[in-house]
Structure formats: C-alpha cells, structure tokens
Amino acid sequence: MTNSQNVSDMKFDLKTLPALPGVYLMKDNSGDVIYVGKAKSLDKRVRQYFQSKRNLPPRTVTLVNHIDDIEYIVTDSEIDALVLEANLIKKYRPRYNVRLKDDKRYPYVKVTVNSAFPRIFLTRRRLMDGAIYFGPYTNVKAIRTTLDLISRAYMLRQCKKRIEPGKTRPCLNYHIKRCMAPCRVGIDKEEYRRRVMEAIRFLKGDTSGILKLLEKKMRSLAEAQEYEAAAEVRDQIDSVKYLSEHQIASSGTDDRDVIAAVADEKAVYIQIFYVRHGSMVGKADLTLIGAEASESIEESMAQFVKQYYQDSPIPPEVLVQYELPEKDLIVRWLCQRSGRDVKVHVPLRGEKKKLIEMAARNAEMSRRMAKLKPARSEAAMEALGDLQKVLSLDALPLHIEGFDISNISGTNAVGSMVYFENGRPANSKYRQHNIRTVKGIDDFAMMAETVHRRYSRLLKNNEPMPDLILIDGGPGQVGAAKSSLDSLGLDIPMIGLAKRFEHIITTKKGPEEVIILPHTSPALKLLMQIRDEAHRFAVSSHRRRRSASLTHSELDPIPGVGPNRKRLLLESFGSVDKIRSASVDEISGLDGISRQLAQRILDHLGK
C-alpha cells in the first residue's frame, strides 16, 4: 500500500486540519488509537506523515500503512499540547508511541461498596461507578502487601463469581481463612459489611488499631523464636506505615467535565473535556439534532446536560459555556443522582475559563467537520440504496447486524455480532456470545445459538430489530441462523456471504438463491466490510477467551501443575473435559509429566 493510497482510503480528510497547536490521535480500522502526537501546527505536522516513503523511517512507514482515521484536539499552546499528549499516551498506550518503561498508570484500591458483598482489589482504572477509590499508589509492592494483610485480617472476598448462597462451593480462600465465603448459606451480611467499613477506615489512614495488633503478634512470634514469621509480620508493619505516610486521598475534587457548544441551522455541536485529578484525559464530540437545534444555545445546552447525565458518571464540578435555564433544578437533580454536592457554573477567569474557550474552539472544529461529512455519508447511502435494490428489500437497510463464529477444534467457541448504522460501524453496540450449549465442532449449531440468543433478548426487551442480517458463511450457516429466527417467529431479511467467491446467499428459494455481484459494486463492498469486521471481532474475542482459559482453570490447584504444564495440557488436549477423558498413558506421554502426576491430575478432575 502506498502513502497516496492511505490518504485516499482514510476516513479522515487532511484538508480539514487547522494550522493551530494541538494533539492528534491516529486510529486503525478497529478504532484503536495506535499513535498520539503533538504539534505546533496540526496541519503541517500531520501532513508530514503522508509524504514520499523515501523520506520516512521504516517505523513511520509501518505506522502510516495502518492509519484508518485521525482525530485531533486543538489546544491553547504547544506546551498545553505537550501535557495533553502525555496524558493521552498514558490513557491509550498506543502501539507506535515511544514510551518510558516506568510510564504507567499507578493503581488504585477499589471498594465496591454498592454491591451486597463488597470486594477490595487493585485496579488501573478509576470510574464514576459508585465505588470508593483510594490512591493512586506509586509503591505497588507496599499496597499489594497491605491488601494481603486486609485479606488476612478482615476475610473479605476477592473472587468475581456471582454470589448465590448455597449454590456454589466455597473456594480455597475460605478454607485457608482468607474469606468469610458469602457464597455459603448462613453468612451474616451485617457482620460482613462491618468488616468492610473497618477496612475502609484502615485505608483512610486509621492504622493505629491494626499496627498495635501486628506489633503484638510480632513480639509474640519473636519470643517464641519464630524469627521468619516475625520478620514477615515486621514487613507487613513497614508496608502499613509506608501506606499511611504516603496516602493520597480520593476526594475527587479535581475531577470535572468541561462542556462547550456551537450551533448552526442543522444541529448543536457539543464538546466535552474530561478532567480527572487535575489533568485532561480525554474528550467527546456529541451532536444534538432535531427540536433541540432550533432552541437557543442555552436551552440546547441544558437539554444536553439533562440527557447526557441520565446514564453517565457525574463529577463534582461541571463547567459550562453558558448559563443554564432552570439551573437550580438541574443542580438539585445532579446532586440527587450522584449522592454528593455538584457545582455547575460558567467560569469567568483563570484556567477554567481557558478550558471552556479551548472546548469551544474544538466544538467549532466539529461543526466545520460535519459540513464535510455529507460526501462520505452520500457514498454510504449510495451503497445502502444499491443493497436495497439488489436484495429487493422493502426499506433502506440502515441497521445491519453481522455474525461470525470463531473456535479451535470446538473449544472456547465465541459468536460475534457487529452493528452497522447508516453504513458505518457502531463499535459500542458490538456483542460477544460465549457458546454454551454446543459441544465439539459444529459451526452450524453455534451460529444457531448465537442468533437465537441475540434476537430472543431483543424480543424480551422490546428493542428494535435490524433491517438486514448478514451471516459470515454459506448455505449451512444461513440455514441454521434462519431456523433460529423461525423458532422466534421473526421474519427479518437474512443473507450470507461466502468467502471464496463473495457470492451472496439468500434465504429465498429458486433461481434467486445465489446473487453474484461485480467486485466494483458498492453494495458488495459494504457487505464485505461488515463480514470482515464480524470475523475480526470474533477472532479477537476468541483469543481473549482462550487466553483467559489458559490463565484460570480446574488445573490450577493441582500440585506439580504450574503454568507451563497447564499450557502443555490444554494445548495438547484442547480442553479440561478432554483431559478428564484421557488415560494415564496418554497424559504421561507428554514431555515432563510422570505417570504419578498424570494419575494425580485425573484424581483431581474426578475421573
């Protein structure tokens, strides 16, 4: 692929780049950020990537060949762009950026106080989800040791499994006195909650009680000449002291959203900057269309705030460009939703005012970009119109869903569903279905299960059905998927796209069962894009599931079976069920596994 081909194939039009300082984010065809850079002039800097390959280093050539889209944020100065670039690199960790090895997001301690039986664990992401966060912590070893201490002292659960008392067997943590096991019958919910609150007080810095307890234990062990155990407790005391001295409170007072808007005769273009811990970490471009666009800009912004924060995290402070009508009512509602004080105001001076001005400039850039999108939209609508004509559909297929299956020898099978709206992928609406009912290699049955689960859920929730369903496969896969629709009483247009010759398989009978289009057809190009995206999403979902199965399995507690032997067993047999069905001779035939260990494995698996 040449650089000129990249320019023409990209979703982004280089002509729209402003000659202003800012940050640019380069994305691949999956929507992932692969590079973040800063520029004194976005126009000049980004264009440098698309000059002759002979003038570019090999790494840059590789980067350019993977660019599918570009996003940018305008800043006040090149210094602001530098700071923002660092924040975004920390957030996205792009593949092609040069990163310091120690440049990582420091962890938080998360307490899920909004669940019936809260967990306390480390996380690298801080969300506005009702949980309590402590941190971030720069000394990861100290906080891990402290969490281990909390586990010993308060016996709070660490696992993610669903709590159904009496329906699951307590795990090893319960038997080694590391968990109260709320999954068993008879657990005292109030006692569990009391221990959680004690752990929270400890994390807030009230360490006096636990330090006295540990110091007493250390002296007792030393007097009993159990010096190794006493040294371990001493290390725990050091970790607690370090934590208390370097505690960073999680009040969230430096968290805010910055909202600005511009309007034209068609829409209102909203720009939101997300500021977390005093640093800008991201942005969102949103649009209000319809009735809101005909109102005043102040009314439109008030409508946006009310709609957006219905299901979005609410920070302690929201900066807006204009005074909101019914501001007092909106503030009371935000406070009620978030459970704490929320300030909404228009900044008049200082750094907050500069943030609003920067957001307003970016909103204006979004408005200008929108005027250049009709040509791109017209091409998508042309493909959809062509597709409607070719398939003799009653309506334009504005909502298309594509399906594919991915598995290796029937293991860790995953069904994917991708969602295309107005001819463009809507990544947030993609869905993954782990195959539950099909054993072995049966792609047809797997496709039938995936389609049935998808549309039975839509029926149950009374959600809109697609205008067209695309199956990655031939007559067998299409027939299996159609049988699932028939069982649900649904009549949705469905086609398949066979990989080898790109023939369209329809569910009609007779001579129209297969449709062959020229490779230049806009309709075929759109179908191929949806099919390829469904395949990509299925493969990536399957890889994640396979990696998880190699990380956690029934083989973990078996003495003598470490990560390497576990990987060898799973790769050789394919699944734990197949290991369970194997003989001692078959298992001991693997390199590094004795007959004694093979028998131990089978005994543990209950054979």
From TrEMBL:
UniProt key word Methyltransferase: no
Chief location: cytoplasm
Domain GIY-YIG residue range list: 19-98
GO biological process: nucleotide-excision repair; SOS response
MF annotations from Gene Ontology: DNA binding; excinuclease ABC activity
Entry-linked InterPro entries: GIY-YIG_endonuc, GIY-YIG_endonuc_sf, GIY-YIG_UvrC_Cho, Hlx-hairpin-Hlx_DNA-bd_motif, RuvA_2-like, UVR_dom, UVR_dom_sf, UvrABC_protein_C
Domain UVR, residue spans: 208-243
Keyword set, alphabetical order: Cytoplasm, DNA damage, DNA excision, DNA repair, Excision nuclease, SOS response
Assembly and binders: Interacts with UvrB in an incision complex.
Family the entry assigns: Belongs to the UvrC family.
Official protein name in the record: UvrABC system protein C
